[in-house]
Amino acid sequence: MSIDSLKSRIPDFAKDVRLNLSTLGSDETLTPQQKYGLMVACGIASRNPAVRAALEAEAAQHLTPAALSAAKSAAAIMGMNNVYYRFTHLVSNDEYRTLPAKLRMNVIGNPGVDKVDFELWSLAVSAINGCGMCMDSHEAVLKKAEVPTEVVQTAVRFAAIIQSAAIALEAAEAA
C-alpha cells in the first residue's frame, strides 16, 4: 500500500483530507528523512492499521533501517511519555510533578538519527496524542537548535493530515 492507495480509500466527504495527503510527498520544507520519518511516526500514532501500513510502505524506500527504527521509537516512547506527562500536567495535585518519572527513555538521548529529526517526530506524535507539556519541551529543543518555525509547523501539519486520514477511514468503515 502507498499514499496513492490510501488516498483512494478516503471517502468523498473527506476530499480535503485526500488533497492534503497529496501534499505530503511533495513537501520541500523538510529533508527526506524528516518527511518520511514523520509519516512513519505519525502513521503509528494514528493507531489506524491502514494508515500505518500505507505510510510505512511509502517511507521504507526512503529511509535507512536505522531511521525507520528511530521513527518507530519516537512513536513508541512518546506513546508512553505523552500519557505520563499529560497526566502530571492536567491533574490538580502538583505533588505528581515533583516525583521522578521512573520511566526509561534512553532513546531520546541516543535515537540513532539526527537529534533534530527525532525531536520533530516526537513533537508531531505529541501533537497527535495531545500532550502540551511534551509539545512545549520538544518545540523548545527545536528552537534551541535554531530549527525554523516553518519546519516545526510543517511537522505538526503532517501530524494533522495523517490523523485526519485515520479519522476519515474509520468514519467510512463505520458507515
UniProtKB/TrEMBL annotation:
Q: Which residues form the active site?
A: C131 (proton donor), C134 (cysteine sulfenic acid (-soh) intermediate)
EC number(s) per entry: 1.11.1.28
Q: What keywords is this UniProt entry annotated with?
A: Antioxidant, Disulfide bond, Oxidoreductase, Peroxidase, Redox-active center
Q: What top-tier enzyme class does this entry carry?
A: oxidoreductase
Under the GO molecular function aspect, what terms does this record hold? disulfide oxidoreductase activity; hydroperoxide reductase activity; peroxiredoxin activity
Do the record's keywords include Ribonucleoprotein?
A: no
**Could you identify this protein by its name?**
Alkyl hydroperoxide reductase AhpD
Organism, as annotated: Kaistia soli DSM 19436
